[in-house]
Amino acid sequence: MAKSLINSINGKFKGKDILSLDQFAPLDLKMLFSLTKKMKNIAFNAKPSRILDGNIVTLIFYEPSSRTFGSFSAAVKQLGGQTVEIQNPQSFSSVAKGETLSDTIRVFEAYCDAIVIRHFEVGSAKKASDYASSVPVINAGDGTGEHPTQALLDLYTIHEKFNRLDNLLGVVGGDILNGRTIHSLIKGLCKFKKNTLFLLSPKTLRLTRADFLYFQDKGIKLIEIQSEKEIPKNADFWYWTRVQKERFHDLKEYEKVKNRFIVTKKLLKDYGNKKMILMHPLPRVGEIDIDIDRDPRAVYLGPQTRNGMYIRMALLALILGKV
Ligand code: NCD
To answer: Which of the chain's termini has less CB crowding within 10 Å, N or C?
Structure first.
């Protein structure tokens, strides 16, 4: 995981790469969130917008994606821009012929105004941003590293519900070791005072000790638990994740832990409360029962997903210097 960064936003988004939550200060989030509200109006009212008129954004995804890819693509189009879209370049581009990441990125840099990249290697988005010297690069997930735009939409969703990002009590369940969305979310919550997270996972899927200490050092309180019985009943949000099968070398190990923690109606009744929200970055593969989907506290298929497009609209408009 990228530890220290690089280009702080500091109120100026134009031309900046978006690689890690480390880059954002509370004021940057405030700016982004207020524009996201406006983007919501544009998308919601289906108002034609020309904010990204003349802009082309390349989406290049070396790992599977539905929501992130789809919402970036829709975000560009909502604002009147266009996309070059490459999914699975290992099969459908010159990467299949052995082209290096550096060459691929330099080629697309020549065609477009920004590059959104998902890649299976930690640090790949940073590498891509070094290769693409003239256009901003957005990290759409680098291996088990970070997934900053997911965390931005997650933080926006929490803020929309509670009107604050401090003094929050959250429960994060699932694959805390490999879940890049969790790593970025923790980094985001570290920026605000008095946040506490209970981290519920099998022992083998806890944060690395180095990451645990690094986050704690930034001021967030992290409490690792291994049983549902330890879930605090007054949490503001639960953030559930799937166990990341593709990160296991031995599938037997995956089978041992894959559905260890499942959110059921009973678990919510026993340990949840009325005011909380239940989040999930998706895809889910059985770790939240589908009979919870219509519970008003379940935001994963509703506002959390929709906010993904709005936040990406705002972010693109800002880094392309259009607002
Ligand atoms: C996440 C990812 O790719 O990290 N998905 C997403 O972008 N919403 C979560 C996951 O794959 O489990």
So the answer is: C
User: Which domain, by its residues, includes 300?
Assistant: 148-305
pLDDT given for residue 25 in this prediction: 97
pTM of the model: 0.96
Give the ranges where the chain is alpha helix by DSSP (H). Answer: 26-44, 67-78, 89-92, 101-111, 124-131, 148-162, 180-189, 209-217, 251-257, 265-271, 303-319
**Residue from 112, 135, 115 nearest 125 by CA:** 115
Q: How far apart are CA 323 and CA 316, in angstroms?
A: 10
Q: Which is catalytic among the residues 12, 38, 67, 306?
A: 67
Query: Is residue 10 a part of any domain in this protein?
Result: no
16, 40, 119, 147: the catalytic one is 147
What pLDDT, on the 0 to 100 scale, is given for residue 108?
96
67 CA to centre of ligand 1 in angstroms: 8
Active site residue 106: no
Same-domain pairing of 141 and 271: no
Question: Residue 94: its pLDDT value, please?
Answer: 84
266 shares a domain with 162: yes
Among residues 16, 40, 58, 68, the one annotated as catalytic is 68
Q: How buried is 247 (Cβ within 10 angstroms: 0-12 exposed, 13-18 middle, 19+ buried)? A: middle
Same domain, 202 and 132: no
Indicate whether 121 and 189 sit together in one domain: no
pLDDT of residue 3: 35
Number of domains the chain is built from: 2
Q: What CATH number has the domain bearing residue 261?
A: 3.40.50.1370
Establish if 12 belongs to a structural domain: no
- Residues within 6 Å of ligand 1 by CB: 67-68, 141, 147, 150, 180-181, 241-242, 244, 281-282
pLDDT at residue number 33:
98
Q: Which atom of ligand 1 is nearest to the CA of 63?
A: 3
The list of the chain residues with pLDDT below 70 reads 1-6
